[in-house]
Specification:
With about 400 residues, the protein is of the alpha/beta class. Helix content is about 40%, strand content about 15%. Helix 5 packs across helix 14 (about 340-350) and helix 10 (about 225-250) runs parallel beside helix 11 (about 275-300). The site of nicotinamide-adenine-dinucleotide has 27 residues, from helix 5 and helix 12.
Length: about 400
């Protein structure tokens, strides 16, 4: 995955693993318009560590916290700060739990990076069967290049929690799963148990992200989908969000934000996105509205979903037609460019920030505008229309 710059946005940064001289230069809200400092990441990597391999660790020392605080104060008073213009996205002091991160190719990872770039502390929930490989890849530095934030520091993940979002508590877990060797090495991975563990470890969170989906029969047309496959898609991709929010709501600080990921197949026909997945996304979007009301009234939590365009993630590749969808979007969307995961990550950072304080219950499209089209303009039928096209 490339590490593109976050032009036009400002993020407050306080990465703990950057050398102090660089910290002085980079701390505080800065405009990120230039290139990421990719070249320096490997030097920095040796000065950093991944807190996820230290259970309950915060990944930084109290002395580094002190230095960040004083630098931030100094920056507030400096001329560099007054030179900054625009609106800051500052999530410093906020803690995010992102469910559905198991590699560096998906939306969950990109959202974690944007939230981290804005200063938030990152906790992730990783599907139990994918946990070992994810943790060992993190430990071995396989994701280090993808961990580079716009200030050149590396994203830290404070803790990785094993999670299987189709089970609410231990009573739900069938014997064959309990006995499965991919699950045997982990514990406390049902939704309720994960929420309890996060409460025990950190007390509360401010941002909850649901970036997971699973439809075992996704490649089958709806007419050929079994009841079991359909319900499994709904369970993993829709109810999992209801359950996550339900269990995390008591530890979500008032004013907090909850975000999920949806897809246009919920409301328009996308042949190939089968197995009940289109129905699962429709349920997710409807639930977003109802949950916005309930969580808003109960704990002043905002609930939104991002309808993202096509991305070559692991899950999307499993569906089998992702390249076609990316090409289709390039040919037909108002903006003829490939969508980057960072664009979705940045939108999540905005939604999680006070800048979005009046936005709740919405489906927000981040898809180069494809959702707005009524026709596919690459059809030969339109060949005589003078439609401007990107020549690249
Ligand atoms: N990639 C796209 O083109 C696209 C487009 C629109 C929306 N989305 C949505 O974005 C979200 C993230 O998907 P992605 O495409 O980035 O792929 P991804 O593979 O990065 O993420 C899906 C994650 O779900 C996890 N998962 C599956 N079942 C689980 C379970 N029972 N419990 C816990 N975790 C589980 C997987 O391990 C994986 O980490 C999904 O909701 C997806 O539908 C993706």
């Amino acid at each position: 995955m490339t590490t593109t710059s976050f032009s036009g946005l400002q993020f407050a940064m306080s990465r703990s693993c950057i050398p102090s001289s660089q910290k002085i230069a980079d701390a505080g809200a800065v405009v990120l318009g230039g290139k990421s400092k990719i070249g320096s990441w490997n030097k920095l990597a040796s000065a950093c560590h991944i807190a996820s391999v230290q259970p309950f660790g915060r990944g930084f020392t109290s002395s580094s916290i002190k230095s960040v605080k004083s630098v931030t104060k100094a920056m507030t008073e400096s001329s560099a700060q007054s030179a900054v213009s625009g609106l800051p996205i500052n999530l410093k002091g906020k803690r995010a739990f992102i469910a559905g991160v198991a590699d560096d190719n998906g939306y969950g990872w990109a959202i974690a990076k944007s939230l981290a770039a804005a200063g938030a502390e990152i906790l992730v929930g990783t599907w139990v069967p994918a946990l070992n490989i994810f943790e060992s890849s993190l430990r071995r530095g396989k994701f280090d290049e993808s961990r580079v934030l716009p200030d050149g520091s590396l994203m830290e993940i404070t803790k990785v929690y094993p999670l299987d979002a189709v089970f609410d508590n231990l009573d739900d877990v069938p014997e064959d799963i309990k006995a499965n060797k991919r699950y045997a090495g982990s514990s406390k991975w049902t939704v309720q148990e994960v929420a309890e563990s996060v409460k025990e470890d950190f007390g509360s969170i401010d941002i909850l992200v649901h970036s997971l989906a699973n439809g075992p029969e996704v490649t089958k047309p709806l007419l050929e989908t079994s009841r079991k496959g359909y319900l499994a898609a709904i369970s993993a991709s829709s109810y999992s969000y209801v359950s996550l929010l339900k269990h995390f709501l008591p530890i979500l600080n008032p004013g907090g934000s909850s975000i999920s990921l949806t897809y246009i197949a919920s409301e328009r026909i996308i042949p190939g996105y089968g197995g009940g997945m289109s129905s699962a996304k429709a349920a997710l979007e409807s639930d977003t509205r109802v949950l916005a009301f309930e969580a808003g009234r109960k704990r002043k939590i905002r609930v939104n979903t991002i309808s993202a365009g096509p991305l070559r993630s692991r899950a999307a590749k499993a569906i089998g037609f992702i390249d076609m969808m990316i090409d289709y979007s390039s040919a037909n969307a108002p903006l003829q460019k490939e969508l980057s995961a960072e664009e979705v990550g940045n939108t999540a950072a905005f939604l999680a920030s006070p800048l979005a304080s009046a936005i709740t219950g919405t489906v927000l499209y981040v898809d180069n505008g494809l959702n707005a089209m009524g026709v596919g303009v690459d059809s030969p039928i339109f060949k005589d229309l003078d439609i401007p096209k990107d020549q690249h």
